[in-house]
Structure formats: structure tokens, C-alpha cells
Amino acid sequence: MPAHAAKQPTEPEVLLGFGLAAAAALFLFAVARAEDQAFAFHMTLLAAASVGGIFLIANRYISRPAAIPQEIAGKPNYSYGPIKFAALAAMVWGIAGFLVGVIIASQLAFPALNFDLPWTNFGRLRPLHTSAVIFAFGGNVLIATSFYVVQRTCRARLAGELAPWFVVLGYNLFIVIAGTGYLLGVTQSKEYAEPEWYADLFLTVVWVVYLVVFLATIWKRKEPHIFVANWFYLAFIVTIAVLHLGNNAALPVSPFGSRSYVVWAGVQDAMIQWWYGHNAVGFFLTAGFLAIMYYFVPKRAERPIYSYRLSIIHFWALVFLYIWAGPHHLHYTALPDWAQTLGMTFSVMLWMPSWGGMINGLMTLSGAWDKLRTDPVLRMMVVSLAFYGMSTFEGPLMSIRAVNSLSHYTDWTIGHVHSGALGWVGYVSFGALYCLIPWIYDRKLYSLRLVDWHFWVSTLGIVLYVSAMWVSGILQGLMWRAYNALGFLEYSFIESAEAMHPFYVIRALGGLLFLAGALIMAFNIWMTVRSPAVAPETQGRAAPAAA
Amino acid sequence: VTILLFLVPLALALGLAALAAFLWSLKVGQFDDLDGAAHRALLDDDLRKPPGGSAPE
Prior knowledge:
heterodimer; A: two-stranded antiparallel sheet; 18 helices; 4 strands; B: mainly alpha; 2 helices; elongated
């Protein structure tokens, strides 16, 4: 490579630049023809983002060197920019999502907090909460860590220069469109898949680019072995693409309006919805975060995975068993009995790979358990595994039809979801971010004591949340099925709603503590990023002592 | 139920695709040195930043 090669715009820079210009024109046309305000607003947003994208490409062209080397002095020139953006975005969206969670939990305890306004009512804020925590927080954590892990374990720079940025920025733009849509009342009313058809199409484009970037990085790997975490990430990306396309099949009322009709109806729609819904749990909230576990726990503990062989069995078992668990959401419905039984059977079979994986993660600590006393980041990840074990034990139990007849439609489900979401997904994400952000910024984590505080405050929050929902859920289930001597229902529905009040207050308090922990984390991360850079240390050292 | 006529074959197709991926990884020797793979994931090859400038992102 000549040292003074003239700088030329690359083909992707030119193509994406013109593509974005064409897209901006198209979106402006859609604004002009828009049939409702929300659609006009979103098309304006997309047009502005396209123009912004052109500006970013030009800006990048001016500031970049003539050629970006794949390797420097024989070592991979890792790309960290998109990872930094996604990691910090995860922190911001996390706080927003937890805050909205506290608000809607308070609304359930004190309905006056709905304020009788359409934009602040529970029905609109609830999808804002679920999407913010799952897709905005969780999604950004997955994108950030996957881009980091795939580069590191393949010993190759991330494929493409603009494509990873397109994935990160495009994904976050999708989040903004989805979130503002919910507040404006734009929804196709499918749980965890509320965004309307145009947002779905946009996400499809972003996701395909994500898959291509990931696969192309694996393709040019220098390390012959594909590390097990990459397999988990790959399963997550591929399956989410399939689920997204299947569940979001919809016919727009007009190409210039925000409304659409879902293709499926009745029990058909319910089946594909929960096929999507539960596999999103399996491949978004489980496979993706297991990838994080399999990379970050060994790194932080500075020990190889307890049994690498078991991790591979874990992966293939999960891939082959997971896909048919969805019908357990539809027990005692119009869905044929055999399909319900099939869903239940597959759910129960999942006990094996889940617990195998959990034990594998925990045993990685064997011989290094003392680190739990000194390293709160590692402690957070280990507790996340304990919650993973707990919620993957509880889940198959609840999928059994007889148990489900008590638990379904009650708060037990909410408690189960949150032991997985706060305990497993939340904690493994926090642990990964506490590792990742100092690594990619070449910083030392500002304070381990604050991590300790985060850990204890939010653990208390999770315990309050989950136990309140267990009690309230079982109470609810028992009240609904209680009959008196004459065969009439013992309680009216409103009596069961009244009985929930104290538990809803405890739940809101638990959520508040979880939010407080996340705020402590945000401060810690902020101080870390702002602190002066240190020489890149070997990863995994919890707190490298200053020389 | 018509949706099941779509979902069951789709699940089978995904399973077969996964099986193909597994057989491929077996064939190319992905699992020949599991202990080495577990240890190599812990190794790092960090670039020391050149003085006066950071690596481009």
C-alpha cells in the first residue's frame, strides 16, 4: 500500500450516498401524500435521517485516511466505533425503558396516574416499556457485543466500513419510529411486534445487513475455529429474521398511511403470534444473551469455559428443541389439542439444554469462586446465570397444562418474565457492558464500589418484584377458580383486582430500585468514558492496578 | 388448521438447515480441538495504539 495513495470515495460510500438521496426523495413524496399525521411524521423522520446519513458519509470521508487497513503490524485493526455507539445507546434506552416500566407499574397500583390522556395511558405506555427494554436496551447490547465478539474471536476487522454503522444507526432509528408510533397510537396490536408495516419493512433491511456483516466477518476470519458464541449470535440473527417476516405479514390499507391489516386472523393469528412471541424469547432473549455469557464470563473469570464440549451440545440442543415451544401460550384455546401438547412437550424438553448451559457457565468459576468476593461485575454475571436457571426451570413448569390453568392470565406470568428479564437478561447485559465499555474505550472502570451498589440495590429490587408477582399471581389464580357451595364463583373480578393492590405497590417499589441501580451504572459508565485513556490492558483483568 | 401447514414445514426446514450446518461443521473439523478453542478465545491480540494517533474506527 503506497503511503500517499490519493483519497478516493469508495464504492459503498458513493452507492449508499446516492441511495440515501433517492430514499430521502421517496420519503418526502410520502410526506406529501400522507393520509394521517403519524405517517407524515414518520416519513419526515426517515427523510431527515436519510439526509443526515448523507452528511455522515461525507463527514466520514473527509476525516478518514485514504485507506483503512485490515491489519496493522500483523494485528487486526478492530472496528470499535459502531460498538461504542450501540453500547452507550443501550445504556440510554435501558434507563428510558426501566423508567417507563416504573411508570406503568405505578399506574396499575394507582390508576389515576393514567392522567386520562391518550399519550400517557397504560395501553400505549406498556408496549413502549416492553419494546424499550427488549429491543432498544437488549437489542443494542446484542449488536454491540456481537460486533465485538465476532471480531475478537475471528481475529478479523468487522466486515464493511459503512455497513456496521448502517446497522447500528438504522436499528436505533427503527426504535425511535416504533416508540414514537406507540405514543401516537400507531400499532398493529401484536404483542412484542407492535410496529406498523413500514417500520417492519425498514427493520427487515437493517436486519439483513446485520446478518451479512456478521457472516462476512466470520467468512474472513483468521482463526479457523468458529467460537461457540458466534453460533449463538448467528442463530439469534437468522431466527429473528424468519420470525419477523412470518409474524408481520400485513396488508397496508394504503401505501401512504400508517394502518394495515394482519394477513392472519383468529386462532391462526394467535398461533403465529406466539410462535413468534416465544421464539423471540428463545432466540432474542436466550440465544443472543447466552452468546454474551459464553464470551464474557470466561473472559472476566480469566478461565476457559468449564466444558467447551458441553457448550457445543448446549447450542445444537437449543437450536433443535426451541422452535416449537410457542403453543404453550395457547393452552385451553381453539388451537388443536395436539399442537398444545406438542408445545408443552418441547417446553419441558428445554429443561435439559437450559440447565446444561447454566451449569456450564457457573462451573466456569470453579477454582475461581473467590473472585465473586472481589469482583462485583463477575458476581452480576454469575447471579444472572442463577436467574437463568431459575426462570428456565419455572418456564417449562408453567407450560404444563395443569399448572398453566392456574398461572395463565395471572401476574405469575409477569413475575416469571421479569425474573428472566431483570435477573438473566438485565444482569448479563450489565456485566457485559461493565466489561465492554472500558475495553473499547481503553479506560479503567471508574468505580467497582458503585458496581457493588448497583448489584445490591437492583437485586433487592428484583426480589421484591418477583416475589410480589408470585404471591399476587397465585392469589389471583386461586380467587378466579374459587366456587361456593352452590357452584357460583366465589369472587367477582373486581375483588381480585382489589386484592392485587398491595402487591402492585411492592412491584412498583422493586422496579424503582432496579431503575436506581441502573442510574448508578449510568453514572459509573459516564465517569469511565470521561476519564483519561489508559494503555490497552489485557482484557479480563477486573481492575488493573496502576503501574 | 392452515397456519400449522405453514409453521410445521417451516420448523422442519429450519431444523434441517441447522442439521446441515452441524454436519458441515463436523466435516470441516470445527470440533477437532475443543480445549484449544476454549483457550484461544481467552487470548488477545490488542493493537498498541501508535503514538500520536488512534487506530481509525
